[in-house]
Specification:
It is a single chain. The protein is of the alpha/beta class and 396 residues long. The chain is built from 15 helices and 18 strands. Helix 14 packs across helix 15. The protein is globular. The mean pLDDT is 95. The site of NADPH dihydro-nicotinamide-adenine-dinucleotide phosphate has 34 residues, from helix 1 and helix 14.
Length: 396
């Protein structure tokens, strides 16, 4: 029976997912890209046809409205839905999958628009309903979360008897030439980096002020960079699934210009997520700011430099202490050459495609709601090498 794949969300990441699914169309069958703004889907479909001569179809959907999603699912009857809209739509799309019996994948955990809080609670709570509907949800199949979870599972499977500490490192050394812009959706990005930091140690979460802890890490192929401790969602599932873990932290690099702009915007209230009244109209400052900032999808053409994302794991193998760094380096300009996107969308979109490919090929299968590190990492790691995200390991 021929397959059908529905991608929801035609932003920077959706562009890469659509390109990469089209490049692997034997696995995905008919591909439909649906989003709130149909013209964005059509522009991506046209670019794919021009560049690689594969036709994908398009549709309009407001994924905040569950009834509309159900109508679209009934019409298309896809084998899988790849959700690369915004985290706000995770629950409506998951609920529509439950009601229509369709497998689900996303790259970011649910957030309520009015509360900047990332957690898996509400998505994990749907495990029973996914099981009753005999379908699978794969959560967080981007780079971080996503590949970073798979790197941890790979380290656990092949390199350690016990992992004691993990530091997830996310370095983007790209330069787009603007004084201030975000590499993925501005609202989601700014909510993430302006939130309090948090890491896990000896069974407890320890909270820090935003950007309170800075450490200089040396990133292979990039160099030394100031890196700030943030809370990041993959830690919530990794603490449940990695054996013997005593501490896990997440660090991300930020340039001086980005931080100065962010502090200033925060000080004047532009990062607020509550409505304010402006000349008789209600506006949310963060949403207004997102409207002013460059569209991340437009940064591709101008971004130069590299990303390096990886995990440092320390632990014990055969009674001896051991440290490894598993990492992936991408070059923004090469990403753009291949799929007309900068490196952050590229490194997120490819793992989303790979997760869906493994589900469709039944290499990763299960019923219920799953996180990435719960599956065998080997087929995913092989696909990363083949699909444009080759990785390396440093051992000491
Ligand atoms: P963009 O803002 O570029 O794109 C989001 C797309 O979703 C837009 O096309 C938007 O439509 C569409 N959309 C928003 N709301 C709706 C709705 N109600 N119904 C239908 N479509 C909607 O974001 P990115 O592509 O940068 O990010 C996509 C996702 O990837 C986000 O969830 C983000 O958190 C995640 N991400 C994950 C990463 C990881 O490593 N795990 C890293 C980076 C991002 P419109 O064009 O009309 O606004």
């Amino acid at each position: 029976m021929s397959k059908r794949t529905l991608i929801i969300g035609a932003g920077g990441v959706g562009n890469v997912v659509a390109f990469k699914c089209a490049m692997n169309h034997q696995s995905f069958g008919e591909i439909i890209l649906a989003s709130r703004t149909l013209s964005k889907c059509e522009a991506i479909a046209n670019n794919i046809f021009k560049k690689i001569n594969i036709k994908i179809n398009t549709a309009q959907i407001d994924a905040d409205v569950i009834e509309d999603i159900v109508v679209l699912f009934d019409l298309l009857q896809p084998n899988i839905v790849i959700n690369v809209a915004l985290p706000y739509q995770d629950l409506t799309i998951m609920d529509a999958c439950i009601s229509c019996g369709i497998d689900y994948l996303d790259t970011a955990n649910y957030e309520h628009p009015d509360t900047a809080k990332f957690e898996y609670k509400e998505q994990w709570a749907r495990d029973r309903e996914f099981k009753e509907a005999n379908i699978m949800a794969l959560l967080g199949s981007g780079f971080d979360p996503g590949v970073t979870n798979v790197f941890c599972a790979y380290a656990q499977k092949h390199y350690f008897d016990e992992i004691h500490t993990i530091d997830i490192l996310d370095c983007n050394d790209g330069d787009h030439g603007y004084p201030f812009a975000t590499n993925f959706n501005p609202e989601i990005n700014l909510r993430e980096v302006s939130a309090k930091g948090r890491y896990w140690q000896n069974g407890e979460w320890i909270e820090t002020k935003p950007m309170e802890i800075m450490k200089v890490w040396n990133y292979p192929e990039v160099g030394e960079k100031d890196s700030y401790l943030l809370y990041h969602e993959e830690m919530e599932s990794l603490v449940k699934h990695i054996k013997g873990l005593k501490r896990i932290r997440f660090f991300m690099t930020f340039g001086e210009s980005y931080l100065t702009h962010m502090r200033c915007l925060e000080n004047i209230g532009m990062l607020g997520i509550k409505e304010v009244e402006h000349k008789g109209q209600k506006i949310v400052p963060m949403e207004f700011l997102a409207t002013l900032l460059p569209d991340p999808a437009s940064l591709g053409e101008r971004t130069k430099g590299k990303t390096n994302i990886g995990i440092y794991a320390k632990g014990i193998k055969n009674g001896e202490e051991k440290t490894i760094y598993i990492y992936q380096v991408s070059d923004h300009e090469k990403c753009y050459e291949e799929v007309l996107s900068q490196g952050v969308s590229y490194t997120t979109g490819i793992p989303a495609m790979i997760g869906a490919k493994l589900m469709l090929e039944k290499k990763w299968q299960g019923i219920g709601v799953w996180n990435m590190e719960e599956f065998d990492p080997d087929p995913f790691m092989e696909e990363l090498n083949q699909q444009g995200l080759p990785w390396k390991i440093k051992e000491s």
